[in-house]
Amino acid sequence: MAETGICRLNGHKGVITKLIFMKEHNIIISASKDTFVKFWDLDTEHNFKTLVGHKSEVSLIMFLFVIYILNNCSTDLILI
To answer: pLDDT by residue (tens digit) across 53-75?
Structure first.
């Protein structure tokens, strides 16, 4: 991350609809209208994993920290 505390994470082609920050791992998980969920390493400022399969925007992501499960939701009703 830049010394100013600001970094630019390029990768989504649509508007970001939800972000989750995992402080203990320095990771951000983002959902977007482009149908993707992306995992970002803030130390390297790079996307290291992308979940694909939705046919419409991803409007919700929830991370269950106790058991490390990521739930995501889209209007297409596809479970990924």
So the answer is: 888 888 888 776 655 566 666 66
Nearest by Cα to 18 from 72, 75, 80? 72
- In eight-state DSSP terms, residue 38 is E
Give the number of other Cβ atoms within 10 Å of residue 36's Cβ: 21
Let me know: does 26 contact 12? Beta carbons within 8 Å. Answer: no
**Cα–Cα distances in angstroms (integers) from residue 28 to residues 25, 46, 48, 76, in the given order:** 9, 10, 11, 24
Q: Where are the beta strands (DSSP E) in 1-80?
A: 16-22, 27-32, 37-41, 46-51, 58-64, 69-74
pTM of this structure: 0.74
Cβ atoms 4, 10 nearer than 8 A: no
- Do residues 36 and 49 lie in contact, with contact meaning Cβ atoms separated by under 8 Å? no
